[in-house]
Design brief:
This protein is α+β, with helices and mostly antiparallel strands. The chain folds into 3 domains: 367 residues, Methylamine Dehydrogenase, Chain H; 95 residues, Orthogonal Bundle (Cytochrome Bc1 Complex, Chain D, domain 2), CATH 1.10.760.10; 99 residues, Orthogonal Bundle (Cytochrome Bc1 Complex, Chain D, domain 2). 16% of the residues lie in helices and 30% in strands. The strands form 9 sheets. A 4-stranded antiparallel β-sheet has the order 1-2-3-4, with no helix packed on it. Helix 8 crosses helix 10. The radius of gyration is 24 Å and the shape is globular. The relative contact order is 0.10.
Length: 630
């Protein structure tokens, strides 16, 4: 009881400090040194726990951190922004995925602090995982929607396995039999009754997907997946979007709640989904997770609210085991909190009460993403403050330490905008950030949302914010004259707070600075032969009339025959840019087309958005190839 009281007091004090720090940061806290940020985004601990290896995304380097001296002792430049780390069992080599359209895996000799070799990988590779025998490296090729099996000695690709949409995290069972892959987003229509991302289970011997583990309706923006030390369970962090509800409020997770789903690996099925929020306070943007060596503690970072949750996992399993499949009846029936049945658990904001401690990070530590456990001590990499924070989660009186990874960089207005965009402390009760609905640098969550800016009962598919300031108006039916107006309306009506104008101005500059990612359909950066043919068809079918280069939009609204039963009779739809079309599925204003083929065929019967009815199947395929190359 005394220990629980100590945890509670510490969490409350940390939250107060965090709130004060948020106000300071919002006012433009000055930097102490010039230079680019490091942006630590991945962590690995040496087998003896004496060293931490830190991938720094914008710093494009690998840092070696000495735990005893609390200092960086080595730095290795990398060929591209790192996205993930995998440490050999003997601690001698580190495999670092470096993301670009043709990604590299840098093999670092840790005794020499130098790159020994480089392997080729797919588009925006990440989440490297070593097989238990260390002979195979599994790499998620995010924008190829597949996983590479690489020979660790030669770098030769042994096979590729197709998965769902944007594989972003993975882990392998201790026996090496199954590789679990977390797909960032769902890949179907957004107007369906059930819309959710899935976990792909790959049989590593057969080299194919043998099962897909379903998550609750609305699950998306998956970030991390980790298997327990005993190999019996896995946990994946994600959002749970309540996309069927109008966005009239945020209280009690009405729009977005923040969750982890527990998987049973023996049965290859989900156990349940547990919310990380509290009844009156969101835990926005769950990101990294890690286990203590004995599996007794599960830690999860909250990148939006700058916090760490510590869950006593055996107690969580025991509590879940007491929840019946059907409501209990008869005399003496017992209930577990608000959850009368297992189906209630993903909606129960109090389920973790008594078995979870929630700590605010030290003031100034911002954007916790990766986390590792060394003994009973959690180490957290803070993306926006270039710091490591650490706490002994088993201590009677836990105390945070914060360690800078270098001189604090000057923060440009673009970087400040990026910070605000990912910061849920500027949202009412911390339920979400702008990045909750626009993950991956202002892109899409692939959901329909019933926003209040055009009435209730007519949900629209989420739009990418890339080029939004250059392609007015904003929103599907153009209800915001400019993207700047949409940013300010979003602060008021989606985050439900009033912020200084400097916050919106910084977000504007961040969004203006976003750059298109080269399409995975390109060949050596150029159009394929099919895409070249498709470009000619694009002109012949008169698609360019409404989608002229270079922005591929005429900035006008049109009736293109796609109104649905929930739209108003006079609705006309803003012409979207086609740039990064490969990344923005599902398509049309209501997300009712899962593929471009549907857009060009079944959803274009009267040739109102391009004269496609007389195209052959081969011409349609070439046109699609071109569109997906933009």
């Amino acid at each position: 009881m005394l220990l629980a009281l100590a945890w509670t007091r510490f969490a409350f004090a940390s939250f107060v400090a965090l709130t004060v720090a948020s106000w300071t940061a919002a006012g433009g806290e000055p930097a102490t040194a010039a230079g680019p940020p490091l942006s630590p985004n991945a962590l690995e601990a040496s087998p003896d726990g004496a060293r931490l290896y830190i991938a720094c995304a914008t710093g494009e380097r690998l840092l070696s951190f000495d735990v005893a001296s609390r200092s960086v002792v080595a730095s290795v430049p990398l060929p591209a922004p790192p996205t993930g780390l995998a440490l050999a069992a003997d601690g001698s080599r580190l495999f670092v995925t470096c993301a670009r359209p043709r990604s590299l895996v840098a093999v670092v000799d840790l005794s020499k602090g130098a790159i020994l070799n480089q392997f080729s990988a797919g588009h925006t590779a990440g989440a490297p995982v070593l097989s238990p025998d260390n002979h195979t490296l599994y790499v998620c090729n995010r924008f190829n929607n597949d996983v590479s099996f690489l020979d660790t000695a030669s770098g030769r690709e042994l096979r590729r396995v197709k998965v769902r949409r944007e594989p972003i995290a993975a882990d392998v069972t201790p026996d090496g039999r199954f590789l679990l892959v977390a797909n960032h987003l769902h890949d179907g229509r957004a107007d369906a009754d059930y819309v959710a991302a899935v976990i792909s289970v790959i049989d590593t011997t057969r080299g194919d997907v043998v099962k897909e583990l379903l998550l609750p309706n609305g699950s998306g923006v998956l970030q991390d997946l980790r298997i327990s030390p005993d190999g019996q369970h896995a946990v994946v962090t994600h959002l749970l979007g309540r996309h069927h509800l109008p966005t009239t409020q945020l209280e009690r997770g009405w729009m977005n709640s923040n969750a982890k789903t527990i998987l049973h690996l023996g049965r290859l099925e989900t156990v349940n989904t547990v919310l990380l929020d509290s009844p009156d306070r969101g835990a926005a943007n769950p990101w990294g997770c890690a286990w203590s060596a004995d599996g007794s503690a599960l830690v999860v970072t909250h990148a939006g609210t700058h916090e760490l949750s510590v869950v006593r996992f055996p107690e969580l399993l025991a509590k879940l085991g007491k929840v019946p499949a059907a409501p209990p009846t008869g005399p003496g029936a017992e209930y577990v909190g608000a959850s009368r049945t297992r189906a209630d658990v993903p909606n129960d904001l109090a389920f973790l009460v008594g078995i979870r401690q929630r700590f605010g990070l030290p003031p100034g530590d911002r954007g916790p993403r990766a986390v590792v456990m060394v003994g009973s001590r959690a180490w957290v990499a803070n993306y926006f403050s270039d710091t490591l924070a650490t706490v002994d989660v088993a201590a009677a009186h836990p105390r945070w330490e914060s360690v800078s990874l270098g001189p604090r960089p000057a923060m440009s207005i673009v970087r400040r905008g990026e910070v605000y965009f990912h910061d849920a402390t500027i949202c009412f009760q911390g339920w979400q950030s702008c990045a909750s609905c626009h993950p991956g640098d202002g892109r899409v969550d692939a959901l329909n949302w019933d926003l209040l800016n055009d009435g209730i009962g007519n949900p629209k598919n989420n739009k990418s914010l890339l080029l939004s300031h250059r392609t007015p108006p904003a929103m599907s039916i153009g209800v915001r004259e400019t993207a700047g107006m949409a940013v300010r309306a979003g602060l008021r009506h989606i985050l439900f707070t009033v912020q200084p104008e400097a916050v919106a101005e910084a977000m504007d500059e961040y969004l203006k600075a976003l750059k298109p990612v080269p399409s995975p359909q390109l060949v050596e950066g150029e159009l394929s032969a099919a895409a070249v043919r498709g470009r000619e068809i694009f002109q012949r079918a008169n698609c360019a009339a409404c989608h002229p280069a270079p922005l591929f939009t005429d900035l006008e609204s049109h009736d293109v025959g796609t109104r649905g039963p929930l739209d108003r009779p006079n609705d006309r739809f803003d012409t979207p840019t086609l740039i990064e079309l490969w990344r923005t599925a599902p398509y049309l204003h209501d997300g009712s087309a899962a593929t471009l083929k549907e857009v060009l065929t079944t959803r274009n019967p009267s040739d109102q958005h391009g004269k496609t009815s007389d195209l052959t199947a081969y011409e349609i395929a070439d046109l699609i190839e071109y569109l997906l190359s933009l």
